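// run 5 | inverse folding | seed 20
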């Protein structure tokens, strides 16, 4: 993945290629690794890495954005040209604000910020995940159970640079273990549940329910303020909110993220409640730039 220093170098080149009054670049990237096991055996180990830059240019209130996932000079020139060509044919928008300076961004984000990046999590290797899976399988074998699941870890970054001196950077890591224990009969099933409970495991449904309860009131108030019925739309709205936190859809260009939503939510991805919830979910996900938070949502676990 790109470092902050490498991204700053890319932005310097973007800026040199642009003739706009203002230019901004938002960098997103992620590295995701997963070990999958079934029938008490590891059967898949994968890793993927993705980096994208979103370039916005502004000509006196005429603004547009383009994206690139290659950072050579020719690719960046094409992306800058695409953004500028689109911006020039837009009608000026009197509500477009100037891009923030470094001092303005600092003032908006004053206060303690939660630490979401842990070197130990970022450095988890396939062999480390295999050792954990071996321990899980040994418990299953000892109790004559069949186990399946995943152990994944990832790191991601988001950075924003602009021609007025702003250069902010955020990193975070994530680690997740999901385990299923299978038994031959119901008595063995209960024993498997007890084993997981004794180990401090929490069901996914219970974790999601507790997390949503913690933010539901504020989301209901926001949705009602827009003139919508939260009681009838809550399920779809919540799906949109949680979709913004899916690791499969993060760190991608706008078009790629839309394709991801179409894949996971084919029947509701373009509905009004889903889109409203998704917008709020993205704001919740992106808060580290503006404020500190200790709340953790599905797919956003710290550590």
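// decoded
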């Amino acid at each position: 993945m790109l470092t902050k220093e490498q991204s700053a170098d890319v932005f310097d080149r973007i800026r040199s290629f642009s003739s706009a009054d203002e230019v901004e670049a938002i960098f997103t990237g992620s590295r995701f690794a997963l070990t999958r096991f079934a029938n008490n055996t590891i059967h898949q180990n994968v890793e993927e890495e993705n980096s994208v830059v979103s370039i916005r240019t502004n000509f006196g209130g005429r603004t547009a954005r383009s994206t690139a996932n290659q950072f050579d000079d020719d690719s960046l020139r094409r992306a800058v040209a695409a953004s500028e060509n689109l911006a020039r044919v837009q009608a000026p928008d009197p509500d477009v604000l100037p891009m923030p300076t470094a001092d303005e961004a600092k003032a908006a984000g004053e206060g303690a910020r939660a630490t979401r990046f842990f070197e130990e999590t970022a450095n988890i290797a396939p062999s480390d995940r295999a050792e954990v899976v071996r321990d899980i399988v040994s418990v299953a074998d000892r109790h004559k159970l069949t186990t399946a699941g995943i152990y994944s870890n990832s790191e991601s970054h988001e950075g924003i640079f602009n021609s007025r001196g702003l250069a902010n950077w955020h990193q975070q890591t994530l680690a997740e273990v999901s385990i299923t224990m299978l038994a031959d009969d119901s008595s063995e099933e209960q024993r498997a549940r007890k084993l997981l409970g004794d180990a401090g495991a929490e069901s996914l449904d219970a974790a999601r329910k507790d997390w949503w309860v913690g933010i539901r009131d504020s989301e209901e108030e926001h949705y009602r303020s827009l003139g919508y019925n939260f009681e009838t739309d809550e399920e779809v709205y919540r799906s949109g909110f949680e979709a913004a936190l899916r690791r499969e859809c993060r760190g991608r260009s706008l078009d790629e993220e839309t394709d991801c939503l179409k894949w996971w939510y084919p029947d509701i991805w373009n509905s009004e409640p889903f889109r409203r919830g998704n917008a709020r979910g993205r704001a919740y996900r992106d808060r580290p730039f503006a404020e500190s938070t200790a709340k953790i949502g599905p797919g956003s676990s710290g550590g």
